[in-house]
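explain this:
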Amino acid sequence: MPIFESTVSQRDQFRKAASDQPGEALRKGKVLYYTNIALTYFIAGVLMFAGVSKIIGQNNIAKTLGASFSFINNDVLFLIAALLPIIEIVLGFAIVFKFKENYAIIISAILFFLFTTYTFYGIASGVQESCGCFGNVLKSSFDWWMLTRNLVLLVLSVYLAVILNWKKQKNNVKS
């Protein structure tokens, strides 16, 4: 019997030593925590990159909007083309610096929903222009790749909005 007890004791010592290893943090739910942080910064980075690149090549987005929505007044389209990059950059910074992060994530989810809808419209109506999503920095056209990209960004931002809202409610219950 003493042999079995020592074996159990050795196993417990091994488990304790293993818990001191760097990988232990990953086994204790930290993977999801760090993944959520990475996804948050990814969404913020995409928004800021898209906003800055639209400012660099603002003509591109205005031209695409004009080709897609010829029934809308050009002044309104140019206003949208001027405000959209600013909105994207502000949202990106709000997410990075955690200023009203929940609202910024929700607004970005709405924005990605609008981009996805615009992509469906562009594919369905056969728009041949570059979408202007990333100004002149990256060329992107209305195709299934663009639709997939927008859907992934939409799903990620909705996921983050749900997670952040859940954490906020959980923290409010503890208070």
Summary: The chain has one domain: 28-174.
